[in-house]
Amino acid sequence: MATKTIASATVRAVKKRVLPSRAALVLTPTAVQKVKEIMSKEEAKGYIGLKVGVRQRGCNGLSYTLDYATTKDKLDEEVKQDGVIIIIDKKAQLTLLGTEMDYVEDKLSAEFVFNNPNIKGTCGCGESFSI
């Protein structure tokens, strides 16, 4: 599958939350709005949504990736919420269960943040994590 990398993301370890049943990933209204904004610029290129993946990187082992997706692979999970589509790579599914995807802007940065109750440790910058 062809993808185009658009961003890396920050992770936060959070206390357990109760999410709606069957929700692999829940987006905040701010994240939904930002995904819509990103996709509106890229619709003509044949992308169906954004794909969340995981790769080995950083001092704590794993980090999330965010790419454009043109297709959904057989074992990928698809999350549809408020008009946006997020594809979860099969390798990232277990690390994302129960996670909230947010978009946060402040004076110094703007980024997607994954508030994940499954994380056991993160590095100082919040870019990598361990489960």
UniProtKB/TrEMBL annotation:
<dbReference type="Pfam" id="PF01521">
    <property type="entry name" value="Fe-S_biosyn"/>
</dbReference>
<dbReference type="InterPro" id="IPR000361">
    <property type="entry name" value="ATAP_core_dom"/>
</dbReference>
<dbReference type="GO" id="GO:0016226">
    <property type="term" value="P:iron-sulfur cluster assembly"/>
</dbReference>
<dbReference type="InterPro" id="IPR016092">
    <property type="entry name" value="ATAP"/>
</dbReference>
<dbReference type="GO" id="GO:0051537">
    <property type="term" value="F:2 iron, 2 sulfur cluster binding"/>
</dbReference>
<dbReference type="GO" id="GO:0005739">
    <property type="term" value="C:mitochondrion"/>
</dbReference>
<comment type="similarity">
    <text>Belongs to the HesB/IscA family.</text>
</comment>
<protein>
    <recommendedName>
        <fullName>Iron-sulfur cluster assembly 1 homolog, mitochondrial</fullName>
    </recommendedName>
</protein>
<dbReference type="InterPro" id="IPR035903">
    <property type="entry name" value="HesB-like_dom_sf"/>
</dbReference>
<dbReference type="InterPro" id="IPR017870">
    <property type="entry name" value="FeS_cluster_insertion_CS"/>
</dbReference>
<feature type="domain" description="Core">
    <location>
        <begin position="25"/>
        <end position="127"/>
    </location>
</feature>
<dbReference type="InterPro" id="IPR050322">
    <property type="entry name" value="Fe-S_cluster_asmbl/transfer"/>
</dbReference>
